[in-house]
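Record type: monomer structure entry
Structure origin: computed from sequence
Chain ID: A
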Amino acid sequence: MNKRRLLFRVGAVAILLAIAACMMVIGRGHTVYVDNKTLEYNGESYKAPYRVNVYVKGEQIARLAARERGMTTNIGQRFRMTLGVIEEKGGDEKMVDVSLKLPYSMDGIILNVPGYLANLPQEAWLSEFVSTPTEAEMQDEEIPSEEEDLLAGEF
């Protein structure tokens, strides 16, 4: 009876570990930022289109003019979107399907539209989003003034 109980416990733990491993890969969430900004790469400049409409799962998530950024959240490692690219004012919208595998190690991912449309290598148009700290976050602890030092009895 004891061996059977131990076997069931080990089996239950193994099943739970397998489910956890699958959910870690499948359920991984990413914030994807779509940039319509001019890109400088290897000394060349890739100009941002006049307007880019970004569709994910058939729903428009962003309408980006040049120098703008949109965002969406994606669950899983596969990301699909459709870009409606208008190169110049009054031009026709050209639809471009985008399907890519997101890097597991990045939470915030920036996709640069001009770099992607120019068929540059992935390292040119895909990068990690790094938040810049605000001034309040950058300030260290307040340094006591001389007056406060005198009141505290430190000379």
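Annotation 1: The domain at 29-131 is CATH 2.60.40 (Immunoglobulin-like).
Annotation 2: Residues 119 and 125 are 9 Å apart (CA to CA).
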